[in-house]
Design goal:
alpha+beta, 2 helices, 38% strand
Length: 200
């Protein structure tokens, strides 16, 4: 079940390698300092996001799990060392051992055959853990509070990603529109004063 307080981001499973050591998959759940388009509005404006490599200094990684579609039983888990997350210059590197159960081995086979070819990760950020550049329409995530899971996902376009992105950017757009209307109101007031002054 999708949690509304969490954000979800897609990554290509082609970033993952199948290792020649049992049922091991290895790759990147997120890439650092690499902007990607999250959402495009009705006017064609593209809103992007960057995950800062410095966003994980205080991140809660106490119980990250490897799931399918962000739900159900885990296929790998940090707590029992079947899942490992490391942070290098490129991004969040994931190494999952999918050998422990019949269902996790089935998941490995689905990844291997290309039946499942996308991945997503679920996270929250701290208050003021991001910033938005209005000129470039880019959000930078600077302080991730917790990573909940890394998940193999079925569909190339994960609707959870679109929903969480739209929720964030709609809030940004509302603030920008309110500020624009306030500026326009002041301009109209000044124009009215000039017009009235000219008629006196």
């Amino acid at each position: 079940m999708v949690k509304p307080e969490r954000e979800y981001r897609n990554v290509e499973l082609k970033e993952f390698e199948l290792k020649d050591e049992g049922y091991i998959v290895e790759g990147y759940a997120a890439l650092f300092d690499a902007p990607y388009v999250l959402w495009e509005d009705e006017d064609g404006n593209k809103y992007s996001e960057i995950i800062s490599k410095d966003a994980f200094g205080n991140t809660d990684l106490s119980d990250v799990v490897f799931l399918f579609n962000h739900e159900g039983k885990p296929y790998a888990r940090l707590k029992n060392d079947t899942l490992q997350l490391t942070f290098d210059e490129k991004g969040i590197k994931v190494r999952a051992d999918l050998s422990s159960t019949a269902s996790s081995r089935d998941m490995y086979e689905e990844i291997k055959t290309g039946l499942v070819d996308k991945m997503s990760w679920a996270f929250t950020i701290r208050p003021e853990g991001d910033e938005f550049d209005r000129k470039t329409l880019t959000r930078t995530v600077k302080d991730v509070k917790k990573i909940y899971d890394v998940s193999a996902v079925t569909f190339p376009a994960n609707p959870n990603t679109e929903i969480s992105a739209r929720n964030y950017f709609n809030g940004v757009i509302e603030v920008m529109e309110a500020e624009r209307l306030q500026r326009q109101k002041k301009i109209n007031q000044i124009k009215l004063k000039i017009k009235l002054g000219g008629n006196s």
